[in-house]
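Go through this chain.

——
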Amino acid sequence: MTNLTRYKQDKFVKEGSTFENPQKTTYSSLKSLSIMLVEDEDELRRETAAFLELYCGSVIQATNGREAMELIDAQRPDLVISDIRMPVMDGLELASQL
């Protein structure tokens, strides 16, 4: 294991979590994650959410950054996946406010 890998594990991996050893992560450990998917195109959002729901515990959907911020405050997802170009609030502004 290189120092960089060790640094990444020490820095970004929470001790005691199901992701403590990234090499041993399984699909079943993803079931504990809640994911926020932010996409303004309805069909793409629905299809991507359906795929993510196969592997993750829950998928919260939003159509723009403003809606995502409201849902994030209420539901606190583990991960946010966002489109960049969207009406109302784009993905870059959303990321800067997280």
Summary: The first helix runs from residue 3 to 12. The longest strand covers residues 34-38. The two ends are 32 Å apart (CA to CA). Strands lie at 34-38, 58-62, 79-82.
